[in-house]
Amino acid sequence: MDIRAQKTFEALFALEDVREMLRQSLPGSTGPTDMDGFNEQIRHIRSVIDDLEAGTGVPEITKIGGTLGIRSREEEYVNIQPIQAAGRLTPEARKALIAYGDGYSTCDSCRKPFRLDKISKPPIADFHQELAAFLNMDTARVVPGARRGFQAVTSSLVKPGDTVIVSSLAHYTEFLAVEGAGGVVKEVPLNENNIITADAVADRIEDVTAETGKLPALIMIDHFDYQLANEHDVSGIGKVARQYDIPFLYNGAYTVGVMPVDGKKIGADFIVGSGHKSMASPAPSGVLATTDEWADVVFRTTQMTGDLTNRKFGVKEVEMLGCTLMGSTLMAMIASFPTVKERTQKWDEELKKSNFLMDKLLEIEGSAVLSEYPRKHALSKVDTTGSFDVVAEKHKRRGFFFSDELTKRGIVGEFAGATRAWKLSTYGLSWEKINYLADSLQDIAEKYEIKVNRDKL
């Protein structure tokens, strides 16, 4: 590990040790009971800071708790991993993790009605309202990942045997959510451009209705799918859903938090987003938003009464199992939110970066973009069968030669050993890093005598 990254972590860890001394002190005391130990730790921190400033020293800590390695991917590398790019925490979120790391830290001032979305200190209730407004929906809840948002909707709307319309590129968690509710998925076929169109959804609805004698219970379509990151006609699909009076779940796992999303303009009845994938939040986190029409259904409160005790918990929401994101996960999500809102207004710049890199990749002969092109997202699937895979066929490391070359240049996140079809994301990278990434790909190609038509596009 780079010594400055190493010493940064060691300084943070040493400060946590000082913090623990303060935690062990009596309230109102002027300092820790063991002042000698406290002062010694302060001197240690100063020495670590000296090493950090000079870029010198040797690693003193390699494991956390004796087993966990130090994760320095974001400090030392250009990370192009698609599921990690938009989930990088902001500095504010990392600070929130430090301050609110204790288990039920969000519950310090919880009062009746004892529900997460009603807590005013810290401002969790306000955050729920801001989330709904951010998506132009009426009501929002935080959930442990997008998959739990899917699950909440399907368990509320789908009965055993009901049909749910999904994309042919739908994520596996959509399938599981439908199966868990006892439903059956029917996939919408892709057109020649690997896009889900409104007409194709309408045709599938007609097929299902003719086959089963009733309309599908739900339509679930991704705005951008996870396989190719192609943009699907969600606004057109929203209109079709209205025409057939079928609720529409908009899957925004790759959009909510990175680009503007207007639920009512789209015509969505439900919006599901991923905090850890697209909202600069720790895992597991996500958001589920809906309209007033469906709020009482998906956020229904329990009606059950204990048969012996007559206990009632009427304020608790069934699909949320009472409360969802407690502690540092939620606090980090809230801390990142101002930055997340701001960055969605810079989506055009992110697209410029994505297309710039794809252009540079296409200058490498034998390379192709499998996603729709020009790109409409920062995530892309590329094919280097005719370029880097040609080298892999004869290289002693096979496809891992490419991973080796990228790692040497401080680039990580591609699927190790992949030289045919693979995915990457440019989201959140500076132009300096985008240019570095483009130059690195072309340099690797030229090193192995793959022709590069520089600046020809």
UniProtKB/TrEMBL annotation:
Residues 126-369 form the Aminotransferase class V domain. It holds the Pfam family Aminotran_5. InterPro entries: Aminotrans_V_dom (IPR000192), PyrdxlP-dep_Trfase (IPR015424), PyrdxlP-dep_Trfase_major (IPR015421), PyrdxlP-dep_Trfase_small (IPR015422), Sep_Cys-tRNA_synth_arc (IPR013375). Pyridoxal 5'-phosphate binds at A146, R147, N251, S274, G275, H276. Converts O-phospho-L-seryl-tRNA(Cys) (Sep-tRNA(Cys)) to L-cysteinyl-tRNA(Cys) (Cys-tRNA(Cys)). Belongs to the SepCysS family. This is O-phospho-L-seryl-tRNA:Cys-tRNA synthase. It comes from Methanolobus mangrovi.
